[in-house]
Amino acid sequence: MAGVQYFVTRHKGQWMVALNCEYSGPYATEEEAIRVAVDAAYKEGNAGRDAQVLVQGHDHRFRNEWTYGRDPYPPPNRARAEG
To answer: What Pfam families does the entry give (predicted)?
Structure first.
């Protein structure tokens, strides 16, 4: 997928969100990092850009967590991030 991709990963032992090799965070939990990434991706999607959130698993592979225009917002069982 071309467009904006947010990567949720553990970086130096902390949950972070990466965009264009720039990290934001740290976040207390993976869940919090995902909420922040989905909220940011949703804003990008509303601005007309393809947007996706990928999460790094224990096997170090990234899996698709959320895609603008395909998945509901906010995702089920996830409240929007504060702020």
So the answer is: DUF2188
d(CA 53, CA 20): 13
Place of tokens 């997928």: 1
In whole angstroms, what is the distance from residue 50 CA to residue 79 CA? 22
Position 44, amino acid: E
Q: Distance between CA 74 and CA 62 in Å, rounded?
A: 21
Q: Is the pTM of this model over 0.70?
A: yes
**24-78 pLDDT, tens per residue?**
999 999 999 999 999 999 999 999 999 999 999 999 999 999 999 999 998 886 5
3-class secondary structure per residue, 31-52: HHHHHHHHHHHHHHHHCCCCEE
Tokens representing 30 are: 């993976």
